[in-house]
């Protein structure tokens, strides 16, 4: 099997610019090990997706875009995993079991239709974007937004009624 002509272009660019790519990744993460991981992942992605490089003359911007996206993905995942401060940890450590005498929100959610519960769950409990929800539910994005805001308004009114006003 023959090698894609882009493979050599990408390899040459990476070899000639490895220090630049490293410094660029480091500018995002401020950590040498993470920057090396990002560069390595970026090179792997570039070689894997070499067919999407349509013009070998644009290899520089193409590889840098991959590094940017890889670094941003890394930062997003790291943001989700960051450790909390001691006060937050103490708050989260289970002590006494939580006892709620007022479960109005839970009750209001159970009174929604299954479709409406799904929308709320995907948006607020699974933290999905509206476009992702629309794709999952095979709905138009605007329809998804409208339904979500309508459901939130219904919940707000139910909670206001049950607490005597908000």
TrEMBL record:
GO annotation, biological process: DNA-templated transcription initiation
GO molecular function: DNA binding; sigma factor activity
Gene3D superfamilies assigned: 1.10.1740.10, Winged helix-like DNA-binding domain superfamily/Winged helix DNA-binding domain (1.10.10.10)
Ranges for domain RNA polymerase sigma-70 region: 16-80
Keywords noted in UniProt: Sigma factor, Transcription, Transcription regulation
Keyword Transcription regulation: yes
UniProt xrefs under Pfam families: Sigma70_r2, Sigma70_r4_2
Keyword Transcription regulation among UniProt keywords: yes
Top-level taxon in the UniProt lineage: Bacteria
Domain RNA polymerase sigma factor 70 region 4 type intervals: 104-151
Database matches in InterPro entries: RNA_pol_sigma-70-like, RNA_pol_sigma-70_dom, RNA_pol_sigma70_r2, RNA_pol_sigma70_r4_t2, RNA_pol_sigma_r2, RNA_pol_sigma_r3/r4-like, WH-like_DNA-bd_sf
Residues making up the signal peptide according to the UniProt record: none
Family, per entry: Belongs to the sigma-70 factor family. ECF subfamily.
PANTHER family cross-referenced by the UniProt entry: RNA POLYMERASE ECF-TYPE SIGMA FACTO, RNA POLYMERASE SIGMA FACTOR SIGV
Protein name (database record): RNA polymerase subunit sigma-70
Organism encoding this protein: Bacillus solimangrovi
């Amino acid at each position: 099997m023959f090698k894609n002509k882009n493979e050599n272009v990408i390899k040459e660019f990476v070899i000639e610019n490895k220090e630049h790519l490293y410094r660029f990744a480091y500018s995002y993460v401020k950590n040498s090990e993470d920057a090396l991981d990002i560069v390595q992942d970026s090179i792997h992605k570039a070689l894997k997706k070499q067919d999407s490089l349509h013009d070998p003359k644009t290899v520089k911007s193409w590889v840098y875009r991959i590094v940017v996206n890889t670094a941003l993905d890394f930062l997003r995942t790291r943001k989700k995993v960051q450790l909390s401060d001691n006060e937050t940890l103490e708050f989260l450590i289970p002590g006494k079991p939580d006892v709620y005498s007022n479960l109005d929100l839970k009750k209001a959610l159970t009174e929604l239709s299954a479709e409406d519960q799904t929308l709320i769950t995907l948006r607020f409990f699974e933290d999905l974007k509206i476009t992702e929800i629309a794709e999952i539910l095979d709905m138009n994005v605007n329809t998804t937004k409208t339904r979500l805001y309508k459901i939130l308004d219904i919940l707000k009114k139910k909670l206001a009624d049950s607490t005597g006003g908000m």
